[in-house]
Every structure is written in C-alpha cells, then in structure tokens.
Amino acid sequence: MSSDPRFAGINFTPTPASVPPQGARLSRKPLVNVPVNYHPLNPLSFILRAALIYPNKVALVHPNVPSPVVYTFSVWAQRIQNLAYALIKAGIRPGDRVAVIAPNSPLIADAHQGVLAARAVTVPINTRLKHHEVAYILEHSGASLILVDHEYQHLAKDAKVPVVVSNDTGRSGDPYEEFLAQGRAFSQERGWPGLDTDPDENAAAMLCYTSGTTGRPKGVITTLRGSYLGAVANAFEGQINKDSTYLWILPMFHAAGWTYPWANTFAFSTQIGIVNDPQAQKLKRPVVAIIAGAAPTPHLIGELEKTGIKPVHVYGLTSLSFEDFITLIARNPQTYGPFTRCYDQEPWKDLSLEDRARFMARQGHAFATAEEVRVVAVEEGSDVLVDVPADGKTLGEIVTRGNIVMKEYFNDPEATKKAFRGGCFNTGDLAVMYPDGSISVMDRSKDIIISGGENASSLAIEQELASHPHVLEVSVIARNHVKWGERPMAFVILHPQHVSRWKGRHHEFAADLKAHAKGRLPGFACPEWVEVVPELPKTSTGKILKTELRKVVAKL
Amino acid sequence: MSSDPRFAGINFTPTPASVPPQGARLSRKPLVNVPVNYHPLNPLSFILRAALIYPNKVALVHPNVPSPVVYTFSVWAQRIQNLAYALIKAGIRPGDRVAVIAPNSPLIADAHQGVLAARAVTVPINTRLKHHEVAYILEHSGASLILVDHEYQHLAKDAKVPVVVSNDTGRSGDPYEEFLAQGRAFSQERGWPGLDTDPDENAAAMLCYTSGTTGRPKGVITTLRGSYLGAVANAFEGQINKDSTYLWILPMFHAAGWTYPWANTFAFSTQIGIVNDPQAQKLKRPVVAIIAGAAPTPHLIGELEKTGIKPVHVYGLTSLSFEDFITLIARNPQTYGPFTRCYDQEPWKDLSLEDRARFMARQGHAFATAEEVRVVAVEEGSDVLVDVPADGKTLGEIVTRGNIVMKEYFNDPEATKKAFRGGCFNTGDLAVMYPDGSISVMDRSKDIIISGGENASSLAIEQELASHPHVLEVSVIARNHVKWGERPMAFVILHPQHVSRWKGRHHEFAADLKAHAKGRLPGFACPEWVEVVPELPKTSTGKILKTELRKVVAKL
User: What is the ipTM of this complex?
Assistant: First the structure.
C-alpha cells in the first residue's frame, strides 16, 4: 500500500480486517441540532483527515521487533475503527474507562485514537509500575477493560475485568488482532458513520495518573478541547509537517504522550515507535531531539550539538528543542505536557555557548495555545494569588490556567480544589520571573533548602555543581545542620573518564567540588557535604528520587 | 527600538503616546467565574503574546510612502490599546460596529486588533466601492464611528457618525495620532488590565460585506472562535513563523484579510503593508506567493516558477501556494478565507508540469481546522443534501460546516436561513468530487451554460481556451441560441505580444480558437462566438463581472 522506500524492506501485510472497504467514508455520524458554524474540537478528527487526504502515506512504523509492522493512514484508521467497535461490542459505553498497559507499540498508538472513537476514556498505565501500583490505578479509575502488551501481562494479573492481550505481531492469530477482527465483523460495515460524534468538546479525553512521588497517584482528566488545542500547538511549535518523521522516545503512556499522538496525525507525519537500537548510526539529516528532565548543562548542550542533534529541553518531567535548544515546562499530565516554552531571541545568537545556554535554559513564556503563566506568592491558607516582582530574583510558585489545563482529578474533588486554588492551576514549581516576563524554574517547593534562614534552590546548586568537568550527574538535598537549620548535601556520580583519577580519594574530590562551588554560589548554598556514589535512585521515567536520598540522609 | 537591519534606514520615531510605560502588563482583565481549564478563544491574545515575548521585534512596516513607519510588537500593542480606549471614550460599547475605510496601512492593521480590544466589531469596507455603496454598508451595519484613510475621505462624506481621519503619517499632528493619544490619556495608564475580556468566544468578531455581484451586499458576521482557529490553521498551513516576513498583497479589508492579521501575530512574523513598488527587484530568498482568483493555467505556473516565486492558489475570490503551488477555496468572507486546500501528493512530483498543474489546480480537501467539505445534489425546495458520487464527473454544490463558517448574515435571517439550508453552509460553487475525496470547482451555479440539454461549465471552457498561447484572459458566458437553448460565447483579451499579429483579423483568430477548443472540449461546450476585446469589466477585487458581459450579450 505504501510507497515509502524507507520501509520497503519490512515484510508485512496487514490482516484482512485492517484493510478498509473501497470508498469507505471517513467521518463519524453527523451531530444534529448543532449550529452550522460549530463543530466540537476533537483530536480524533485528525486521523480521519489524514486517512482521507494521505491514505497511502506511512502513518505508523514499528520496526526492529520480531514482527515489524508498517501501517498507512488508511489502514491505521480502519484498525482504529475496528478497535472502537470491538470495545463497544465488549460493552464499553461513552465515558467508560479503558486501561492500556504497553510500551510504545501499535497497541497503545491505536488506543489513543480508538478509545476516543468509542467515546470512552483511555487510562494509559506506566509499564514500570509494580503490580500493586497498577492494581490501585485499575481500581481507582474503574477501568472496564484492559488492553495489555504480552510482556506486561503480569501487571494485569487478577484483574476483575476483561483483558485483551497483544502479542505485538500485527499478524492473524494474535489475540489483539482477533479482537480487532471481531470489531470489524460487529460493525457490519457501518463504518465511521456508524460511530457517534461527541457533542461536548469538554468531555473527558484521557485519564492519566501522576507518578505519585508523594502519596497515592492522582488521576488527571483531560478534555477533547484541550487535547485538540495542545496537539495543534505542539505541531506548530515543533514545526512538524507531512515530511516529518517523528521518533517516539517519550513513552506514549506518559501524560498521553504529551498530545503528540494527535500532533502527528494533525501534521500528517510518520511516527516510528522504537529507539535504543544498538546498531543506531549517525543520521545524515538534521535531527531535533525533544529532551525531558532537569535543565541540561552547557556541557551537555555542547556535546549534543557536536553529534548534530539539536536538543529541545522541557522542564518538569521532560524537555524539548527544535531548530535550536528550547526549554519548556511540561507539568505532566495536568497540562497535557508542555505549557511554557523558551522563545529564542535574536541577540542570543552572538553569545558564547555558555551564556547562550543560560538564556536557553530558561523556561520562558506561555505555550502557543496556553493562557498566561504567572509566578505568585504562596501564602498558606490564602486563596489570593499575588504576582511576585518580575526581578529575576523573587521566588514564587508557577500558576497557569486555560484550555490546556486538566479538567479535574478523577474522583478527587478535594485534590482538584487544592490544585485549582485561587482560580489557577498551582503547579508546585518554584520559579523567578525576569523583567521580560520569562520565567526560570528554581525548584519544586519541597526541594528548597532553608540554610541559615536563606532559601537555597537545590536545582540552582545542582546546575553549578554540574559545571565541574568531572561531574556526570548530581543531586542536592537538604540535610539537618545544628547551626544553620539545613545545609545542602550533594550526591555525585563521577564522569566515567574521571572515576579512576579520584579512586580512593573521594574526600579530595569533595574539597575540589566545594572550591568550585565557592566561586559560583553564595555561602549558604555551598554544599556542606559531598558524597560520590556509583548511581542515583530514579523513578521509572528517569527522575531522581530525592525521597530515597532523604531516607539515606535521615539515617546519617 | 528595533534592531532589524532591514528597516534601519527608515527615519521614524513613534509618537510619545505609542511608547508603552515601563513594565506594562500584557493581559486584559481576568474573567471571573470561568473554569480554570477554559479560556475563550480570541485572536487578540496573539498580539499580547507577541508583545510579551518579542517586544522589540519588528511587527509592522509601512515603507515606500511619504511617511514610512516601523512598529515593534511592543509599540504596536500599545497603539492597539490606545485605539481601544479612544473608541471607548468616543462611546463605543461591546458589540457596536466600527467601520474602517483604508488601503493596507497601519490604520486598518490597528483596527483589526484595536476594535476587538474594545470588544466592538470591525466593518472593513472595500476602498474601491462607490460612495452610495459605502453609504449603504454604513447604514446597514449601523456603524457608530468611521476610521478613514485621508485618500478615501470622500467615501465617508455626509456620514452621520463621527469620522476619524488618518493622514497615514504615524507622526504627531496626524488626526488619527491625536485620536490615539486621547485614548492613551483617557486610560490613565489603566493599561491592558483595564480592558475587559470577552467571556463568549462565539461573540461577533468582524462584519465583512460580500461584494454583492447579485443584489445588495450581505454583512457576514464572524466569531472570535472562528477567527482564532482560522488564524492558527493559516499559520500552520502557510508555515509562517517568527523568521517570516509577510508581504500584504491581499487587501486587509477583504474578508478581514483572511485571518492573516492574526495568523501573523500568532506566528510572530513581520508584516509589510505595501506592494507595487516600481523599483521592486528580484528577491534573493525563496518567496511564497498566495494568489487569488481563477484557477491558474499551466503556463502561468511555469512563468511564476521561472521567477523563483512559488505560487499558492486559492479558488473563490482568491488563491494560495507555499512550498509548491497550492490551490485552496476561499469563500469570502463567509468562511474566513480558505476552507479547502490542495494537499500535494508524493507521486505528483514525477509528472510533467502540465499534468502536475492539473492535479495542483484541484481545490482538494478541507482545511486544517475546518470540518468536512461535501459536494451535494442541489434540489430546488428541498432541505436534504445528498452527496453526489465521488466519480470526478457528477456536478454538485460545495457545502461545508463547522468552526470556520460565519456566524450569520447581519440583520438578515432570511439570507442566513437560505445560506445554511440543510445544516451546512451552501457555497453556491459547483464542483465534482474525485474518488480520493478531493474536489475541483467547476463553476458558480449561475455560470453553468445549458447547451443542448447538457451542463457546460464556463470555468472549464475558460481553462481550455486559456491554453491557447495567444490568449491573455478569457471569459465565457451563455448566449441564447435558437436551436440549442444556450451556447457559450467567449470574450478574449489577446496577449500583448500577439495583438498586432491578429490586428484586423479577429474573425480568423476566432476560427483558430474554435479549432483549438474542438480538440479539447465536447461539442456542446465549444464556443459558438468569440469576441476579441481590449479589456473585461471587473469588480474592485479584479473578478470579471459576468453580469456586465451578460448585459452586452442581451443586446446582441
């Protein structure tokens, strides 16, 4: 079906159920009694448009697995329709929740579209969670059905609802393929026009759970409208178009893949669902990498640029850069992924790499379809949000509001009320605002170290310590101190090239790093203790678990 | 203020009133009692965002006039705010209409933003209309105030409402500048937060009048939501970004400039408001031209490509192409400009220019944020729309619906009802749909020639006649015929290079053209009469006035 020579070597034929009938109509049942000048925003419309306009263009590729597959937009749309009918046949009704437990693969890519087509709500579950954590989410979400990849079947063990397993083959005989075929048969070729359109653009789209680093994970309900507008903004800001190939590194279960599943169908781009190939070679074309995590150091930016990769950084759990290095804030999943972006300024191009990186590491301004972002004073017990001075110094909490803020925490009005205090979404992230209205994240509120009465940002300390050439990774937390109340303690992983140099002389390295810090940080922010460690405890998404480090420190 | 070296030669300082106060806040008064996860879509938000993020970037340039001006986003946003306050001071209330009569210039660029900021509705008036036509629009729209460029003051003569004249200087002493300064003084530095935000995204944004080729012009009301979504789609489809310079050729009064006034602020691009410079030289960078009008011929495409200009064509009153030649349908102003686009397909690149042009001249599929486009059977007196077969042959009427359809015809429920027959906007354009779901416009319904019981499209005939190398322009209409009922009659302007060749031998040219047609058109569609003319009657927007040709023919 596809004529893309890049994937011609993949030996694959879609199942008969995946092939659409001739002349199939690509729109759902029209709504009645809606104004002529209104259609509810729904990101599902993008795949239907793509299948209409570019039926034979490659939409989804899953290579480098035992059973690789290639789907065109036309075939993929049919599979999505089959999934919708299969879910309806299985008893799924509008508003019901359908859980999906899968790595990046066609199963979860289908779910992000097909569950919407059944007017149900997808609950994407982190595959790195433990069985009891998954069980909690299944229970809390009230999921009526589970779609699970064969490698993660153990996570759905003892589930009290139907489980559909995918062996990730895309071939007949695979139980997931049988499920889709049932959907196709059930539809009796009613096709897309047999499926209802959501009349309410503010209906729930997804139910994504927070990582729950503090307490139980909370379920974030997003809307169709928010998903549509988030996706359009990501396509525009990421300059994705029909000639783009989008390489998935971000797990699609993570904050619903940041609306990229729909940004890609909006832009008609080809999605590839695999990374970490040991045979990966340097690419011949420019590559934009969307990177997530802590603010990258100038050193890292330099190294990435050498490889020809243009990084995009997003603060929060993640990061992003396009033509150049770009920093975003992605508060996942409450803001559908990114809600700020660093917009590069003309004069920066003449700066040194180090100075440029300092500006580029700012989190910037509100995203294309977001409402304004503010930094406000956090007063306990008050509901009034007061903007801090835009002086680049005064710390406050980042708040935002508007179309790309979640609808609510599922079944948790108390948590929703707290999160929406003062009529804004309270991110829990601390930042400063510069005179130009851009912001820099300083820390999560709980990561501030109160040293001698001063607020020291562990993030700011980490950034300075990371500029020491022998530091690979560093994490700083508060440790109690008799005189100062708290003082910073740094946990450091040495750069592999320098491990042997400091072997048996970690106290000397500690002195060296403290001296390095002294020239760059105020006294109260200099680490009192430095510990060299072989690794740092991390969450399933690679975020350093400071809670674990705090447990270590509590015992010291 | 600006550091753009391209405009450094323009000797201009903004008026004191145009300079924003230090640290001015760039958001309007927050709405109360709206959900945290909702903000009403409003294209005014883009200029505020641009002024926040790129305050010193050049937003608007008006060169090559006696008093050239250059405004940065920061200064422009202040002028827009001043205009809003000046209007409010003058008694303008939410929903009131403000007329603007101006060529592309800062006055009308300001109005497209500043009138929205006062929550009023802009009525952009075609400067090429006659006094009595303008008087009709002023009366019908109930405009409470008129902003007029000094060159068009005569069109506002005898107006019964206040008139503000711009001498297009941007300098102190200009009455428009005095008006803005009054607004600044009136605001007493309440600034943007002193202006109300529209709570309803479906509120009226603009009131644009149809050209009224049949009967009185109708007033089209568009919405804030539609304008926002149309602008985002145009920015995305046009690949406009902050490095773009947008050269205005389309008059901004025309269908509110197709939402490009806001597409450009969304994308942070620089707008230049002037063309037709006799000293224009070939540009060194790739240029994309968005062209409007009848379908361009392969010859024209070839000529444009030779000059390095990539044309984009839009059917309707207008046309458009980006990376390559792209055809759109812009039904102005009822669909905010473009609502379809030809999406180029991979296999076309291997075709000959002529074959490629045939595909590229199709009007394609629905635009990025539009709902589906259909071609339906037109039955007199019925409200049921039946899709014609997608066979590339059966003629039907193009209908569409959704967010980028106008809200209504102002004060004309009867015309609105007729236009929205069957729950869709009835464009009055006839087209065929191909098996791939793309459409080609064949004609306006009234331009079909019924020849011997067959429907002949005058547009299709014109396209074939235009392929004769000596034809510069051609227009075909029906002329009564004793035997066949109607037969096509062609009015031709010869190409300047070939005028002398056929001088005194127009009947021979007619025979030559008829022979040319014979090989390309069915007998009933071949012109029975050919008349060579020095010029064709046209509307103010360059559209051939077939009504005038019909008057000529009626006398034959």
Answer: 0.79
